[in-house]
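TICKET #2291
ISSUE: user wants both folds in one file
ATTACHMENT 1:
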Amino acid sequence: MVKPEDQRVILDLVTYPGSAPRGTPEEVLRHFGADDGRALGLELLRGGAVAERDGDQVEMALIVADRFGLSPACLEPLITLCSADWHHAHEGVVSALGTLRSPASVRALQHLADWVPDYLDYDDSRAMGVKAVWALRRTPGPEAEEALWGLLASGSGDVREAAAKGLRSRGVSESEGT
């Protein structure tokens, strides 16, 4: 479980426009008694965030994982978080899956491209869905291309447009799908 003092140390890693981070990765490792930041990110993701179903811990785990790098072992808990409605960090999850570029994440990314959580209902530009499409675009394999075709047929306007661009970036013409 991430305590308030843990959150403070983690949040000190965050940079804001026009300022440097207040903390260092070394301070985070020292605070948690860890020597491997990637392993720490995975531990926070699995242990606190997913196991305890704690939205704040999801955000803290994503900050640590982003700063120290994602290990392939993060894939499973990230995929679990895609369909969880108890947190508000789905865009961060999309970014993390986009970084990992694993064909195993295709179904989860397609879900996030189509789904609009209640807390994002106001977003007419469908930013999370478009980010999920861009993550699919960077994901190798025929499954990702198939997902892009599916989104081209069923997604919202912005998601369809992103899917069309994603297919074109793969050298595929939209007319090939008809």
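ATTACHMENT 2:
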Amino acid sequence: MTPRELRCGPVAEALALLPAPMSGAQAETMLLAIAMQESELRYRRQHGNGPARSLWQAERGGGMVSGLLRYHDHRVRDLAVGLCAVRGVSPDAMSVWTAIEHDDVLAAGLARLLLWTDPARLPRLGDEEGAWQFYLRTWRPGAFDRGTPAQRTELRQKWARNYAKASSEVQP
């Protein structure tokens, strides 16, 4: 899948299912950059069979699945359950985790909701470092947390490339 296909397809469909304030260029840029960082827009299962699924690589017990379905703010939780209803998925962690492997619209919607849970505003367009910090807070990537200094540097450089690609797709 290309960034354009993801943006014009599943991301656009998902954002249309959520309240209007959740849409916009900043949200689209973050969603594209994170999906490219996590899956290269190719892998819907972590390393072919790992615990994470979807283009955004969500784990069943992580924030994008279990976390949203049990979120302390009922507005966020209700939106997650509503996305499940629209997509015909039972709002339980196993069903959602199984579905997002193939339902990119549901996965994109949940990814946007996870970003929404961060108390900070989305980074302004072009703020690649702010976007990196936002990604680290919301996704908490294990490869970064457990990585060596060299691996962390490589992941940070990968983010710079992915954020630039996402930005050029959203604001050519």
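RESOLUTION: both attachments delivered.
EXTRA DETAIL ON ATTACHMENT 2: Residues 149-170 form the longest helix (22 residues).
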